[in-house]
From TrEMBL:
It is found in: Cell membrane. It comes from Paraperlucidibaca baekdonensis. Belongs to the MscS (TC 1.A.23) family. Residues 116-183 form the Mechanosensitive ion channel MscS domain. This is Mechanosensitive ion channel-like protein. GO terms for cellular component: plasma membrane. InterPro entries: LSM_dom_sf, MS_channel_1st, MS_channel_C, MscS-like_channel, MscS_beta-dom_sf, MscS_channel_2nd, MscS_channel_C_sf, MscS_channel_TM-2. PANTHER family: MECHANOSENSITIVE CHANNEL MSCK (PTHR30347:SF1), POTASSIUM CHANNEL RELATED (PTHR30347). The chain crosses the membrane at residues 28-48, 75-94, 100-129. One of its GO terms (molecular function) is mechanosensitive monoatomic ion channel activity.
Length: 304
C-alpha cells in the first residue's frame, strides 16, 4: 500500500459514520474535532487566567484585586466552556432547538427535587459577582463552621478550618444564612480576652499587667485609633472579672483559639511577675455554737 492509498484509507476511516444524529453522521473525524475544541478551550482558559493574573500585579496602569481576578477568571472560565459546549454540539449536528424541550424538562426537575442544586448554582454566581465572600476570608457560619475560604465554585464553597479540615459548604448557605466575615474589608479586629484576679488586688497594677501582656504578643495592633485597654466588667463570686481588649492583625484574627491562648499565656506571666493572685473557687464554712443534749431512752443514752 503506497502513501496515497494509505491516506485514502485513513480519510475513509475518519469519515466513516459511527452513528447518525438527525441528519448528521457522527464520525471519528468529527469526534476528534470536538476533542480539539475542548483542548483549544483549555488553552484559552489558561491564557485568560494568566492575563488576569498579570493585571493583579502592582505597578500596572490597570490593577485588579486578587479577589476580583479570581471572580472574573471563574466567570470567564464558565463562559468559555459553555460556548465551546454549544459549538461542539452544533458541529456534531445536534439541533440546539431541542434544548428548549430539555429546558422544560429541567424546569420540571427543579420543581420536583433539583431546587437545591439550582439554588446553589445561582448563589455561586451571586457570590462571584458581589464579592461579599472572597478566597482567603475568615468566616463564621450560622451552622457553626469556622475557617478560611479556600475555594469558591459554582455549586459549593470549600472552607478550611484551622485544623486543616476541608468543609464543603453549599453556596446557598452563604446567601440564606448568617455569615460573619472577620476579614471583609479591614486588616484588624478587636478581640476580648476575659480573666479574673482575687479581690483586694490593685486595679491599676492589673491594668499595667494587661497592657504589658498585650505588648509581648506579636500581632497586637497599637496606634492612635487602635489602643489596647483593660476593662473591669464584673464582680464574680470569687474574683474581680476583667477583659483585656486588644486590636489584632489579620493573622491573629484567622486563628481565634491560638490568639486567645497567646494572650492568656502572656497575662499569666505578667500577673505572676507582679504577685497578682489568680483566684480559685473558695467557700467559707461557718459552724454555729450550740448545746449537745444527751438523754436516756430505755436505759440507753441517745443524743438529740
Amino acid at each position: 500500500m503506497n502513501f496515497s492509498e494509505w491516506l485514502d484509507h485513513a480519510g475513509s476511516l475518519l469519515t466513516h459514520p459511527l452513528v447518525s444524529v438527525g441528519q448528521t453522521d457522527i464520525s471519528i473525524g468529527r469526534l476528534i474535532a470536538v476533542i480539539g475544541f475542548l483542548v483549544l478551550a483549555g488553552v484559552v482558559v489558561s491564557l485568560i487566567d494568566r492575563a488576569l493574573q498579570r493585571l493583579a500585579k502592582p505597578g500596572r496602569s490597570v490593577t485588579l484585586s486578587k479577589s476580583g481576578v479570581y471572580a472574573l477568571s471563574r466567570i470567564m472560565r464558565y463562559t468559555v466552556w459553555a460556548l465551546v459546549a454549544f459549538m461542539g454540539l452544533d458541529y456534531l449536528g445536534i439541533n440546539l432547538s431541542h434544548f428548549a424541550l430539555i429546558g422544560g424538562a429541567i424546569g420540571v426537575g427543579i420543581g420536583f427535587g433539583l431546587q437545591n442544586i439550582f439554588s446553589n448554582f445561582i448563589s455561586g454566581i451571586v457570590l462571584l459577582l458581589e464579592q461579599t465572600l472572597k478566597v482567603g476570608d475568615f468566616v463564621d457560619l450560622q451552622s457553626g463552621v469556622v475557617g478560611r475560604v479556600s475555594e469558591i465554585n459554582i455549586r459549593y464553597t470549600r472552607v478550611t478550618t484551622n485544623d486543616s479540615v476541608d468543609v464543603i459548604v453549599p453556596n446557598s448557605e452563604f446567601i440564606n444564612g448568617r455569615v460573619t466575615n472577620w476579614t471583609f474589608d479591614t486588616d484588624s479586629r478587636r478581640v476580648h480576652v476575659p480573666f479574673g484576679v482575687a479581690y483586694g488586688c490593685d486595679k491599676d497594677l492589673v491594668r499595667e499587667a494587661g497592657l504589658a501582656a498585650a505588648e509581648t504578643v506579636d500581632g497586637t495592633v497599637s496606634n492612635a485609633t487602635h489602643k489596647s485597654d483593660v476593662w473591669l466588667v464584673g464582680f464574680g463570686d470569687n474574683s474581680l472579672n476583667f477583659e483585656l481588649v486588644i486590636w489584632v492583625n489579620e493573622q491573629l484574627v484567622k486563628t481565634p483559639a491560638r490568639t486567645q491562648a497567646l494572650y492568656l499565656w502572656a497575662l499569666e506571666t505578667e500577673l505572676t511577675t507582679r504577685n497578682i493572685e489568680i483566684p480559685f473557687p473558695q467557700r467559707d464554712l461557718h459552724i454555729r455554737s450550740g448545746v449537745l443534749q444527751i438523754a436516756k431512752v430505755d436505759g440507753a443514752e441517745a443524743s438529740s
